[in-house]
Design brief:
Elements lengths: L1 H8 L2 H51 L2 H15 L6 E4 L5 E6 L7 E8 L5 E12 L11 E13 L6 E5 L13 E4 L3 E5 L1 E4 L3 E3 L4 E5 L2 E3 L12 E3 L3 E3 L17 E2 L7 E3 L2 E3 L11 E4 L2 E5 L3 E3 L3 E3 L10 E3 L2 E2 L1 E3 L10 E5 L12 E4 L2 E4 L10 E7 L10 E4 L17 E7 L11 E13 L13 E5 L6 E4 L4 E7 L10 E7 L9 E7 L5 E4 L55 E3 L4 E3 L10 E4 L8 E6 L3 E5 L7 E4 L13 E5 L5 E16 L8 E13 L4 E4 L10 E4 L2
Parallel strand pairs: 6-9, 6-46, 7-10, 7-46, 8-11, 8-47, 9-12, 11-13, 12-14, 15-17, 16-18, 17-19, 18-21, 19-40, 20-41, 21-42, 40-43, 41-44, 42-45, 43-45, 44-45, 45-46, 46-47
Antiparallel strand pairs: 1-2, 2-3, 3-4, 4-5, 5-48, 22-23, 24-29, 25-28, 26-27, 26-29, 30-34, 31-32, 31-33, 31-35, 34-37, 35-36, 38-39
Helix pairs in contact: 2-3
């Protein structure tokens, strides 16, 4: 029986071996043919990538769909070694289909074009073809398998608006929770510039406002608008992910600093280990130009902080570069109480409680005066000396910049005729008109400097003060005194400009400089004016040189003056955000230029225990600007593109009074909550780049993107 069983099993091993050989050949064939398919797929992907990019680049140069599509076809044919003619349907339209003669792989290429306006034009190239198989046919596969690949490239031309808000988070899209950009509140939000979200944009159904630009998000599909109560003057569309611009981290200042709490103090750039935590009793603080590192964050709920350089007694203006001044039409007798001053028609209005200067004396305005009025009501007062008809009357601006938030740090100056002596020889007996400017030296590449202007020391000079007059008798000169409690914020010196005609309409010429410390005074005597004469062509700080331009009127009622209009030096703003210098010569040039003297950058590092990095709580006021040497970035918090750790904390920006943060907020891993209440230029003037942002219009939020600071750059991006 066993012999019979063994006989029946003879030959089974041969069958098993034969079957195993078939399987092994199939597996080998699968490996070989799959490897070929993988290589063909990679080559095909490279070809469609190149075709999509070629189409996008061509469109950037030509804005012609047909040329861009033909470029894609030619690029694909060359990469795939397709020497036969392409037969394409739809060239010049938004969908193209192409086949290729003599192509044994039967390749089919399609191009789909989508124009998303400001979001860009996408070119999606898809290709499929067949690949012959060899050994896989042993397993019963057909003679060919299909291979396909897709690529999308986006061409985006330069934007016409600056970027007001850009959020990098994909929140709200693709299953990600939350929202990338949220508008809430009950008041109005004004956005000037483009709004771009890499996720969703949403509002609470109550928030309203205007976007003077384009609104782009990733989802949901538009229309409908994600901001139903907003007026968007540009395009609303779905776009593609806008990459983090990856601004390089600035060079930090390692010098250890502590906040000087005395009102009127000048703070220095460097590293602050402690949060200043400015509360309700805080005063005024001037920031020297440079990089400030706030290792523990910066909290403000009181006081006023700025790097603006302003003169004493800022003048009331009737128009840009035009002080509001007039002349008296009747004499005012010494010792006689007056309640009104008769004047030639006023060029501009004067607010109640304003101070006016006439005949070297100051009066308080008791009632609003309108442009064209010929009388100014003043609080009852007797002139200390006779004031003849035809005397110049000038007006002090109300409010003054450095009085913001009730800190009362603005300064004033006075003129006093004094006797002469051997050390102070007399000057010409006449009426002199006087203006002052505030002066500060800005170091560049050195720790400090005090002039003269050079490649490492830049001059900042404010616009002129209001004009005041002093009458000098025989054998007299006169003294100029500036109030000192506190000193004029940020000023190191004052320049004195004189009009020998006694006219507040000038022309004025530079005569002297004195320090904003010590006695806070200087005497204009015969020695000062020895050989002095008006010289309209003289360089700045030279005898007789003309005074800088005046400021511009406030942007709205109840606000301080704005800076002079932009112009080519020696005109325009010579002290603040509109002032630029060529560092190779140290001289002022038209903006934009490499350096903005006095600019600041605030850096808040990551990795600490700070919950709120920048915490402006609304009880304080702040007006600071950045500059071109910092790429106009005002607040920098490192993100994933910079050296770790990234800063992921929350920032709170609550406006108050004249709050204006002039520059870019670059916080790519952090959140920003922006609350309104600033009535000046803008809560943030420059743009916001954040991970997420929430805008709360509970008192009027303004976010302004200056196109000269940052516009969307032209770009071609492979997105798929």
């Amino acid at each position: 029986m066993n012999r019979t069983l063994r006989a029946s099993q003879r030959g089974q091993a041969i069958v098993l071996i034969a079957l195993m050989i078939v399987v092994m050949f199939g597996l080998v064939g699968l490996a070989i043919d799959s490897g070929r398919a993988y290589l063909d797929r990679r080559h095909l992907q490279a070809a469609v990538d190149a075709a999509a990019l070629a189409a996008a680049y061509n469109y950037m140069n030509t804005t012609d769909y047909a040329q861009a599509e033909q470029t894609a076809v030619d690029t694909y044919s060359a990469d795939e070694l397709l020497y036969g003619a392409a037969s394409c349907a739809g060239l010049g339209a938004m969908a193209v289909t192409c086949t290729f003669s003599g192509d044994s792989s039967n390749q089919l290429m399609t191009i789909n074009v989508t124009n998303q306006s400001i979001a860009g034009v996408s070119f999606t190239v898809t290709a499929v073809g067949t690949m012959p198989v060899a050994m896989m046919q042993v397993l019963g596969a057909g003679p060919n398998i299909r291979v396909g690949a897709t690529a999308t490239a986006v061409a985006r031309k330069s934007g016409t608006n600056g970027a007001a808000i850009q959020t990098l988070s994909p929140a709200g899209c693709g299953g990600n929770g939350g929202n990338s950009l949220t508008f809430t509140g009950t008041s109005t939000t004004m956005v000037t510039g483009d709004v771009w979200s890499n996720g969703s944009i949403t509002d609470n159904g109550v928030a309203s406002g205007t976007v003077n630009g384009n609104a782009i998000d990733i989802c949901p599909a538009m229309p409908p608008s994600p901001m139903p109560n907003f007026t968007v003057t540009g395009t609303q569309a779905n776009g593609w992910t806008m990459l983090d611009p990856g601004y390089p981290q600035p060079s930090l200042n390692p010098a250890s600093q502590s906040w000087a709490s005395t009102s009127g103090s000048v703070e220095q750039p460097g590293t602050y280990a402690s949060d200043p935590r400015l509360g309700g009793g805080a005063g005024c603080y001037f920031l020297s130009g440079g990089v400030y590192t706030w290792s523990a964050g910066f909290t403000q709920n009181g006081g006023f902080v700025s790097n603006e350089l302003r003169p004493p007694d800022e003048p009331k203006l009737s128009a840009a570069n035009q002080p509001n001044l007039t002349t008296t039409t009747a004499a005012l007798a010494a010792g006689t109480n007056i309640t009104g001053i008769p004047v030639a028609a006023l060029p501009g209005a004067i607010a109640q409680n304003s101070a006016v200067s006439v005949g070297g004396q100051t009066f308080s305005v008791s009632r609003n005066a309108a442009a064209g009025d010929t009388s100014i009501s003043v609080s009852r007062q007797a002139p200390a000396a006779n004031i003849p008809a035809g005397s110049w009357l000038t007006v002090r601006a109300l409010p003054q910049f450095w009085d913001s938030n009730g800190v009362n740090c603005a300064t004033t100056f006075a003129l006093t005729a004094t006797g002469s002596d051997a050390s102070n020889p007399p000057i010409s007996a006449q009426t002199w008109a006087v203006e002052l400017t505030a002066v500060r030296w800005s170091p560049y590449g050195v720790s400090s400097c005090g002039g003269p202007a050079s490649t490492t020391c830049f001059l900042r000079e404010s616009a002129p003060s209001m004009c005041k007059t002093v009458s000098v008798g025989s054998s007299q000169n006169f003294k100029v005194s500036v109030s000192s409690s506190p000193p004029d914020p940020g000023a190191q010196d004052f320049n004195v400009y004189l009009a020998p005609s006694g006219s507040c309409q000038g022309p004025f010429g530079y005569a002297a400089q004195f320090a904003n410390n010590g006695s806070y005074t200087t005497t204009i005597n015969g020695g000062t004016l020895n050989g002095w004469a008006l010289d309209p062509g003289a360089p700045r700080d030279n005898p007789g040189a003309p005074a800088p331009d005046f400021q511009s009127p406030p942007v709205a009622g109840g606000l301080p003056n704005a800076n002079p209009q932009l112009a080519v030096p020696p005109h325009g703003d010579l002290a603040n955000e509109g002032h630029c210098v060529d560092p190779t010569t140290g001289t002022g040039v038209a903006c934009p230029a490499p350096v903005t003297p006095g600019a600041v950058l605030w850096f808040i590092p990551g990795g600490g225990n700070i919950q709120t990095c920048l915490n402006l709580q609304g009880g304080g006021d702040i007006y600071i600007y950045s500059g071109h040497q910092y790429q106009r970035i005002l607040l920098y918090e490192p993100g994933p593109e910079q050296q770790p750790p990234a800063n992921t904390c929350s920032n709170n920006v609550a406006g108050s009074g004249i709050t204006s943060l002039i520059g870019i907020f670059y916080v790519p891993a952090a959140n920003v909550t922006i609350v309104g209440n600033s009535s000046y230029l803008a809560t943030i003037a420059g743009g916001v780049i954040a991970w997420t942002a929430s805008v709360k219009g509970n008192g009027g939020v303004s976010i302004l993107a200056d196109p000269t600071l940052r516009t969307w750059p032209p770009s071609v991006t492979l997105t798929q």
